[in-house]
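haha ok so turns out i had the wrong file open the whole time. this is the CORRECT one, sorry everyone. sequence first:
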Amino acid sequence: MNPEAFTVRTRTGSYDLTAAIRRIGPDLLVAVWGGQRPHIGAVAAAQPRPSLKDPAQPSASASVLCYVGHKEDLLAREIALAVASSVNSAVVVTAGIHWDNLDENGIAQVVKNSRVLTGLILEQVAVGNGSGCHGEAKGNSCPDESSSVSPAPAA
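then structure:
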């Protein structure tokens, strides 16, 4: 089964992120959010291409729009580049996360969770089933509920 849409979540217990993924033809639309006031702070569009160093290796190029005062641009770009180069499709990522008074340790956890989230997205796109649990956040599978995957509601 290859669903049109699914959702993945980190479940580390601190600064967790959610992503809703929708297939649009061969391409992917990914919305990432988390925190007390989810929103759209940045948008990244990535297109796959051969690596400039080794044309036999996949890579991607990205363009990013970041709203004034927001800092999600690097997060959106990193996810878009990783997904586009891995799945060889155009990818658009929106990102909007906000926690009040986020300190350096909190920022580091958000970055870590965004990388776990990217892995979950890639795993589910590769598996093509959009269901099940695969917990990379704590290095275990679903029983520890460190991450989850579920079908997205119909639009």
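The chain has two helices and seven strands.
again sry for the mixup
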